[in-house]
Amino acid sequence: MSNHDSAPSFIHLRANDACAVLGVSRSPYAVRSLSPSTSTAFLAIVFFFGASGGRQVAAQAPSELSQAPSEPAPAPVAKVVQPPIPTNQSPVAYPAQAIGEKYFVATPVVLVLDIDAGGAVTAVEVEGEPGHGFAEEARTAAQALRFRPATRAGIAISSRIKYRYQFVPPPARLVGRILRRASDGPLDGAVVVITLGDGSTRETRTDARGDYLFEGLAPGPVRLRASAPSVQAVTAAEVLSYAEETRLILRAEDEPATTGKGMSGVTAVAGADIAEEVNVRGTKPPREVVKRTLGREEIAKIPGTNGDALRSVESLPGVSRPPPFRGELIVRGSAAEDTSVLIDGTPVPLVYHFGGLSSVVPTESIERLDFYPGNFSSVFGRGMGGVVDVGLRDPKADQVHALAQLDFIDLRLMVEGPIAKTGWKFLVAGRRSWFDLWLGPILAATSSGPTSTPRYYDYQMMVQKDFSRSSSFRATLFGSDDAFKISQSGTSSASTGGSLGIATNFWRAQAVYRNQLSDNAELKATAAGGTDTVNIGVGSEYVSTVEHPLSLRSELSYKFGTKVRANVGVDALYIPYDLTLRLPEQTGNGSQPNVPGARLVTATSAGTRIFGGVYTEWEIAPWRGARVVPGFRADSTSTTSQVDLSPRLNLRQQLFSGPHAFALKGAVGLFFQPPTAAESDAVYGQRNLRSKRAVHYDIGAEQQFTPAIRLTVDGYYKQMDRLVIAGHGNAGEGRAYGLETLLRYEGDGRLFGWIAYTLSRSERRDSSTVPWYPFEYDQTHILTILGSYQIGRGWRVGSRFRYVTGNTYSPTTTGAFDSTVGSTLGAVSAAQNSGRLPDFQQLDLRVDKVWAFKSWKFSMYLDVQNAYNRRADEGVSYNYDYTESAYTKGLTILPSLGFRGEF
């Protein structure tokens, strides 16, 4: 919702026009003949009359401006200059983006409009960038405005004015029906009274169908009371939210025959506070205890991420820092492969392109990004780490839009809009890295050392049709392709000479169907198929896998009464695969390689892995502020020929509501992860493996200090067993525990940011009879401080500082170079992972500038990683006999300048 000024707040006039308004001669010589001091005084007078309260040109008629209250009224002055006057209304809706991000703050947007002599708006500029979609909505609406043009001496002239829209958060809406319990028939003419949070009341009556409606309600707690002759009064309490429609159906008992009274005389009401059915249209509360969601504004503007969506997850609590150029997510002490990434419910094999510089889906195609570090819903299975659930956004339907962006990393293009006269809308996007085109030749020109030529591209194509307000169908094709090769000459170091090549690609064809079957039932279904290819070669050794996954996910939700919702779903995955490899001959249990110089064996195999899962989850609100979510999941896996049963329970209790809300939460659950194809391969893997298992425990609290500032604290413990150990089956064990703190400013259109701190420990052991050792990515302290502020006139600045404890490594102090096989034989002289690299710290900066024009927008940004050029110690390298060592340094300062145009 919005309001807008009916008159402009100022008008730009030339000097002659200003003279005319002030009663001064319009001759050009009138100004030129003034002395410097007199000119200065004159300009001050013009500024005073043009800007001071009560003297604004657009705020009063020219005749009023020419009057001086302290002196006799001068002779009438001709109305020479008249400001433009709006002739139509162009209301705007509260931005859908702000609603989706739950940003409900009264927001003014000031526009500068250029109006031609015909009264049409020719250019629109936005003062500042309020974010959350406000500028875009205001700009679009302003272009439809029409004015009676400004005039000078009765002749129409062009002008420039300020025009202000005031966006007001959309109110809540309460609708429903009153029925007789005995017959379930409508109760016509019942008096329905709503009591609002401030004590005021509103009243209406039900129609012939028993329906009632209250609109324009303030958010907060309300109480409803319905009364009618011959029935007992019925009451209910609800909490309303901005931009949500709550549907409340009540059933009234017939008045007992012995009372002989209608409902109006009842004071103590049987069955009070019982609402038979409640349905809220809006964002449902999460089923998980820990769910962290980032809005598009935050995703695109976080410093150090180059505006990349999935890379923004690295700045949240519980996420460890991976080594450079490793596109991995390491969550709460789990291995990278333990965390699942889904796109609209479909699993994908990669998170990032090679080098970790960009995710496989560009930010422009993403509607939301939900991150679950642990204790996630029973909806998700076959993983015991975390879950990243990416939701693609719907294509825009108002008109055709296009986007082009180029920076030092990649080039991206996108086009979207409606398909004329069909009811369908489309989106086509693509991205291709190009740093290989300029970085490759630079590296190749060096006389020694590694030469790398990374390259990636991805694409998304989508069509969607909304059949009604409650149902839609979307078909999407998306994919990614990466290639990376490193050539290393010489064998003077402990590293093996030769080359490393990696090529991966995947694609998915996906169909998504949603249908709100009724007020109580909702159906969601997703089906997808595609291909995953991975080729890895090191010297003369290689592994090549090709998979053709088919996935199906469907969920039916049904609401029973006011306090219970049931969710039932299926989650199936069918994966035919082919495996080709050339590796050293294996011995023993098929997992231990022979000594260097072992014979290379080439083998091929094919098979099919089948995963079937069913789950149910119940969302229960047993009393005010409480939320209990028990869940259960059963997964069958062809690689283990077993069924894994996963009970889970999430609890939440809101102790205080309102602007200083406080809640406690806790969770416990069992999670399984089947062995990979390589781990269970008949030749190079191990047989009779079982699924890896983890038990997640979580307890936490949330405190709202202001509507924009919230603190969350979560303590977790994760116990892992049945980990796969080479040569020893499922003998491995693990444990991870820690404390996560997030103090977040959730944005007011100008500022967003947070402080995230994780204190953690992650350990492993190869069997229950050996000591624990630190996990490869155990990081005791992880601190992130970031913020981004819009300073006005299209400028935004931000920074991010990170401090992370160094990764562990296993020191090696003795060894010898074997010239017969061209490799070094080393001996670990200390306990596994007993060494630790120096701590990591880095400052990232980002500056954005946006220029908004009538029908398009141009922006430029500079994203600088490692701004003060502190090269991190990323590893340890040794000389040929391990008598000398040195730290391997990470990246230097990495600036990326980007340009973007869109309409």
Please tell me about this protein's structure:
The structure is a single chain. Helix content is 7%, strand content 51%. The protein folds into three domains: 2-167, TolA/TonB C-terminal domain; 172-281, Sandwich (Immunoglobulin-like); 292-902, TonB-dependent receptor, beta-barrel domain (Maltoporin, Chain A, Beta Barrel). The chain contains nine helices and 57 strands. With 903 residues, it is mostly beta strands. The radius of gyration is 33 Å and the shape is globular. A hairpin with a 4-residue loop joins strand 29 and strand 30. The model is unreliable at 5-71, 257-285, 489-497 and 587-596 (pLDDT under 50). It has a 25-stranded antiparallel beta sheet that branches. A five-stranded mixed beta sheet has the order 18-23-24-21-22. It has a four-stranded antiparallel beta sheet with strand order 1-9-4-5.
Find the CATH topology of the largest domain.
Answer: Maltoporin, Chain A
Q: What is the helix content?
A: under 10%
CATH class category label of the largest domain = Mainly Beta
Distance between the termini: 24 Å
What labels describe this entry?
Maltoporin, Chain A; TolA/TonB C-terminal domain; Immunoglobulin-like; single chain; 7% helix; 57 strands; 9 helices; 25-stranded antiparallel sheet
Could you give the topology of this structure?
Elements: E1 2-4, H1 15-22, H2 29-32, H3 36-51, H4 62-65, E2 81-82, E3 85-86, H5 96-100, E4 107-115, E5 121-126, H6 134-142, E6 147-148, E7 150-152, E8 155-157, E9 159-167, E10 172-180, E11 191-195, E12 201-205, E13 211-217, E14 220-227, E15 234-240, E16 245-252, E17 277-281, E18 292-294, H7 296-301, E19 319-320, E20 330-331, E21 340-343, E22 346-347, E23 366-372, E24 387-392, E25 401-406, E26 410-419, E27 424-433, H8 435-444, E28 451-452, E29 455-466, E30 471-488, E31 498-515, E32 521-538, E33 541-547, E34 550-560, E35 564-584, E36 586-587, E37 592-593, E38 600-620, E39 626-637, E40 642-656, E41 662-673, H9 677-680, E42 692-704, E43 709-725, E44 729-745, E45 751-765, E46 773-774, E47 781-792, E48 795-804, E49 808-809, E50 812-818, E51 823-828, E52 835-836, E53 840-852, E54 857-865, E55 873-878, E56 885-889, E57 894-902
